[in-house]
Write a structure and sequence with these properties.
The structure holds two protein chains of two kinds. Chain A is an alpha/beta fold. In chain A, 34% of the residues lie in helices and 23% in strands. The longest helix of chain A is centred in the middle third of the chain and has 18 residues. Chain A is globular. Chain B is α/β, with parallel strands linked by helices. The longest helix of chain B is centred in the middle third of the chain and has 18 residues. In chain B, a hairpin with a 2-residue loop joins strand 9 and strand 10. Classes of the chains: A alpha/beta, B alpha/beta.
């Protein structure tokens, strides 16, 4: 089967819904998510724990297993990844679409040398002989900035530091020159100076290899420093979307506004932060209407009865709030 | 703030022995040791918040544990109101424990899962004989109000609470004995951003109301900047810089502090940079280089840095840094004065 698709390979997600059958009832982890990723674009997916951002990524990649169930369409090069047979999906996973995870120590196999794990991917997707594979592995180690690559290929993951492990995982993901990289909190477990290195490496690789990136994170600062567009998730749904510049300048959903206000900023030392009261709802027992209304200071009767649709507001901007005008007009957080 | 400091730390060092291989011992090589703290000195003033920041392995948690005497330093002394806490015995030690309380990072691990909230608080109150037995239930209600937990929380177990609420229980337990000093080790690191803000707000309010001295240990620069009067930056067991929060963040006097600030993601998407703030990785704490610990990653390194460890010296009133480049980060006018 030919893998060659014309340039301009983008990802289109429509109505992606992921349900988990739990002892406490059906948990709606991802609900009706629409997402577009243009070629070469870096899209950020931000939200708190349980907002469905990681499950969205895994659903796109086809990594959800029973008791989970995925519906909707994930279009990639004219094909639907959700409906695709497992064998065909395996050919795309790891080659055209690659993924990196939060904790490289658990994502890497502890009893295999890093080089072998890198070559595994090349064996699965490319026709190279042993010498070519070795050369490609060395090239990849250099691409992601691992010094003494020759020696390090024979080492095991526990001999790598946290930052180097994450670089090794990126090298494995890049092995077959993917067109889309799904990154699930790739820097959350790292120190701030190492996080900075890894994020800048991702940006460089995006430019050099012309791939699209979907970056999942809980840190708004990471989004602000790297992404082109962003989507904010709450209780399994996208509540706001737009270019990073627009969303940061003028949030149109109260939850985005609350998140931005929760992060301390320079120049307002020892003042009260504008926190969001309460805690996120349980996914098995979502409130009626807008899932955010019990914590929202803008909420009115309609929010308690009806769920606001994700409305297009022009200029790539979307928000799921009945009161987005009031939110936008509210006093700036800064 | 020229009064007698409530806590003074004087040249404190702490090592942890690492297991060394049989072959190493046979070869007569010295035992490996992690130098978690290396000649650390600073003072904490009454009523202030001192933030301690650094990356993993910099010794900030070891320092927090030494401050409440969960660990005894190998060298140097920690003085509480002028008395060396290592010399405190029985009754005095218990009194010290009452006045200096610690709150831990992991709200799951630091609460006994088999004790209800009221049992947890009751234990703290009765061990230190804070109240006559009859008054304890009323005091528990008062404490729950203080940290904004519902009254019915008293009869529930830790697993019934969310992470943020559990951290509130930890705060209530620490406040039960009416301490003067609270040492908070990564208090909000495990929490979601919106819940973090709630706990930080609570801490700010309690400090005002109860005139607490707070030592806030964290890796998140934005949080530390927000909550602290003064900030200490640590790297590989050493104090690199200490100074008033605003001046340290506005013009760091140590290249490491500057790298740390540059690396921290800013919330402003218009201010992007593609330059890496600090190259390289932390050296192994088993094998700290002889000179400046940051020498291997510092963009301003010169020969002296690799052989001579810079001492923490004064840069301005209240502001010290440990760097051979005394003028690093100085304002141009100050630089002109110096020349």
């Amino acid at each position: 089967m030919s893998v060659a698709i014309d340039t301009g390979l983008g990802l289109t997600v429509r109505g992606l819904t992921t349900l988990f059958n739990t002892p406490r009832g059906m948990a709606l982890a991802v609900a009706d998510v629409d997402l577009d990723v243009a070629p070469g674009e870096m899209v950020g997916l931000v939200g708190e724990s349980g907002s469905g951002k990681s499950v969205t990524l895994r659903s796109i990649m086809g990594l959800i297993q029973t008791p989970g169930h995925v519906t909707g369409r994930v279009e990639w090069g004219g094909r639907d990844l959700v409906a695709m047979p497992a064998e065909e999906l395996r050919r795309i996973r790891g080659s055209e679409i690659a993924m990196i995870f939060q904790e490289p120590m658990t994502a890497l196999n502890p009893v295999l040398p890093v080089g072998l794990q890198l070559e595994e991917n090349l064996v699965a997707h490319m026709r190279l002989n042993a010498r070519e594979r070795r050369a490609r592995a060395l090239e990849l180690m250099n691409t992601v900035g691992i010094p003494a690559a020759e020696r390090r290929l024979n080492e095991y993951p526990h001999q790598f530091s946290g930052g180097m492990r994450q670089r090794a995982m990126i090298a494995i993901a890049l092995a077959c020159s993917p067109k889309l990289l799904l990154a699930d909190e790739p820097t959350t477990a790292l120190d701030v100076t190492i996080q900075d290195q890894i994020l800048k490496l991702l940006l460089d690789l995006r430019d050099r290899l012309a791939m699209s990136v979907v970056l999942v994170t809980h840190d708004l600062g990471v989004i602000a420093g790297t992404c082109d567009r962003m989507a904010v998730m709450y209780a399994g749904r996208i509540v706001e979307m737009g270019t990073v510049i627009d969303v940061f300048r003028q949030p149109r959903h109260p939850y985005t506004r609350g998140l931005l206000g929760s992060v301390p900023r320079a120049g307002a030392v020892r003042t009260m932060l504008s926190s969001i009261e309460g805690t996120p709802p349980s996914l098995t027992d979502l409130p009626a209407g807008c899932a955010f209304h019990p914590r929202c200071s803008f909420a009115t009767d309609i929010c308690r009865q009806e769920r606001p649709p994700l409305l297009s507001l022009g200029n790539e901007r979307k928000a799921a709030c009945f009161h987005h005008d009031r939110v936008a007009a509210a006093e700036a957080i800064l | 703030m020229n009064a007698v400091p409530i806590i003074s730390v004087d040249g404190v060092s702490k090592q942890f022995g690492a297991s060394s291989s049989f072959m190493r011992r046979l070869a007569g090589e010295p035992r490996l040791a992690v130098h978690a703290l290396n000649n650390v000195s600073f003072e904490v003033h009454r009523g202030e918040t001192l933030g301690i920041v650094g990356e993993s392995g910099c010794g900030k948690s070891t320092l927090a544990r030494c401050l409440v005497r969960l660990l005894d330093p190998d060298d140097g002394a920690i003085r509480f109101e002028g008395r060396d806490i290592a010399t405190l015995r029985s009754v005095e030690r218990r009194a010290f424990n009452k006045r200096v309380q610690m709150i831990f990072q992991d709200p799951y691990g630091s609460l006994n899962p088999r004790m209800t909230v009221s049992q947890v608080l009751n234990e703290a109150l009765s061990v230190h004989r804070m109240r006559p037995k009859g008054d304890i239930p009323a005091r528990i209600t008062e404490l729950l109000d203080l940290v904004r937990l519902p009254h019915d929380a008293a009869s529930r177990y830790p697993h019934e609470f969310s992470g943020g609420q559990r951290q509130r229980i930890g705060i209530a337990r620490a406040l039960a004995v009416e301490p003067d000093v609270i040492v908070a080790d990564e208090l909000v690191s495990a929490l979601d951003v919106s819940v973090q803000a709630q706990v930080i707000n609570l801490l700010l309010r309690l400090q005002e109301e109860l005139h607490l001295t707070l030592i806030f240990v964290a890796h998140d620069l934005r949080l530390v900047r927000h909550i602290s009067h003064r900030v200490a930056v640590m790297y590989l067991g050493q104090m690199m810089e200490i100074g008033p929060s605003e001046s340290l963040f506005a013009s760091p006097r140590h290249p490491y502090s500057k790298a740390l600030l540059d690396a921290a993601p800013e919330l402003d998407p218009t201010q992007r940079s593609r330059v890496v703030a600090a190259r390289g990785e932390l050296p192994s704490p088993l094998d700290v280089p002889p000179g400046c610990p940051f020498a291997s990653r510092c963009p301003h390194v010169f020969d002296r840095c690799r052989v001579e460890r810079p001492a923490l010296t004064k840069r301005a009133s209240e502001h010290s840094a440990a760097c051979h480049l005394v003028d690093f980060g100085a304002m141009p006018s100050a630089l002109a004065d110096a020349v």
